[in-house]
Amino acid sequence: MEKQIIFYGAGNFTQSFLKQWLAKGLRPVCFTDGDKNKHYTSIKEGNDTFCVLPLHEALIKYPNADIGITIAAIDQKDKIYNYLRVEGVFAERIFNVSADGYLKPILTPLKNMYCSKIGRDVIISGDNDGFLTLNICCYPTNMFIVHIEKNNIEEAIDQYFKFCNSLKEDLREGRTSYCQGCPFLYEITPDLQPIISTQNNLEYMSIGSGIYGGRQCNFNCIYCTYKQHRFIENKIDEEIKEKFNILEILKYIANNLPTVRRIFLAAAEISISPMRREIFTLWKENQWDGYIATNASVYCEDLFNLVNTSPAKLFVSLDAGTRETFKHIKGIDCFEKVVHNLEQYTAINDSVVLKYILVDGINCNISDVDGFIAIAKKIHAPIVIAQDHSQGIIPMSDSEYRTAVYLAQSCISHNLKYSFECIDYLTTDVKRLKNDGLFVPSLN
Ligand code: SF4
């Protein structure tokens, strides 16, 4: 008999990911939830309907089922685990369901684990109401560890450090944590002990969308998950616009966080930002290393000067090698102009990294990859192969996988550097690529 699973948690996390869990074959027999108001309601997804039962009814109805905890809040997972144990559920039957649909045993976190991103990397972004969120990494997706409603950066950084300290402690002690199941965790062996930092020391900051000044964009990309929120930009009150925008965050880093030396500026289209001059001046003064995302639709002289007078590089999602596909994905018909601008940006040095986001059924074909590789070769650009996560975190489809392999092999034969973004987290994809003999470097 096929193994049955009851999902514990019928809230927002479930609503966001149920579709992809089902697509992956992870299908609950029913839901249960601690909230009595949800009992005897139902959850619909496509043609499927699942009932939400009180725990004891679910256990009576499905006595052999495992329980998958589908709750995002990390601090709740231990409480639910303990509650389930008190209710008589064996430990071996309790799992955590991650955003990408993997079942991870709750009870087996190893002791003495570590990840060098903790206390070192920060992803700073805004949520859809114009507030501030901080995270350590992109895994697990859609969860933030700090959420500050007054957009107070000092307070956010302080909370972030506190979270990192308790996370390090949890990992040392083998407690359930934010990092549960992440392939980047490694064991602190005796030889590593002396070099593992117990201090938090920020080195890398990624500044994403959702912050004021971070939403203006002149493209309409098919995979963009922020375009529907752009209107919110106008609703943010004046005080927040003044105190909390991309420029103010960069000024804060420059004045208060001298250890941050690498920045990924991924917020909106910088070449049309009214703050761009001040941002570029600040960047140059601080000689930050890192990447600035642009769609290269506008040739910006100031940006050209910046990449030639600082360690900054441009990060461009081109995603196509033909005009038709480019227009389909970007929503704007300006492929030739973008390619021309890329050539201008790289006239003095190799300052561009090109990204190819695989979009099933649109750019997963040989002519686009060949055209893309020809451009990369001309401007000596390293390649980042990425997935379209607007559909959720799911393993690559066969055509995406074949295209990823073809892209990587083309890079090898043309002597271009390549790396993978995000699929680091999907161990099935990484295993598959490695089994097929491909070297799988990752972007850091
Ligand atoms: S979730 Fe993974 S990458 Fe993120 S901090 Fe934890 S171990 Fe590191």
Summarize the structure.
By secondary structure, the chain is an alpha/beta fold.
What does this 3D model show about the protein?
The strands form three sheets. The chain has a ten-stranded mixed β-sheet with strand order 11-10-9-13-14-15-16-17-18-19, covered by helices on one side. Strands 3-4-2-1-5-6-7 form a seven-stranded mixed β-sheet, with helices on both faces. It has three domains: 5-105, NAD(P)-binding Rossmann-like Domain (Rossmann fold), CATH 3.40.50.720; 113-195, no CATH class; 318-444, 3-Layer(aba) Sandwich (Rossmann fold), CATH 3.40.50. The protein contains 13 helices and 19 strands. Strand 1, helix 1 (12-23) and strand 2 form a beta-alpha-beta unit. Helix content is 33%, strand content 18%. The mean pLDDT is 84. The protein is of the alpha/beta class. It is globular. Helix 6 (246-256) runs parallel beside helix 7, helix 7 runs parallel beside helix 8 and helix 11 packs parallel to helix 12 (398-413). The protein binds iron/sulfur cluster. Iron/sulfur cluster binds at residues 115, 117-118, 136-137, 139, 178-179, 182, 184-185.
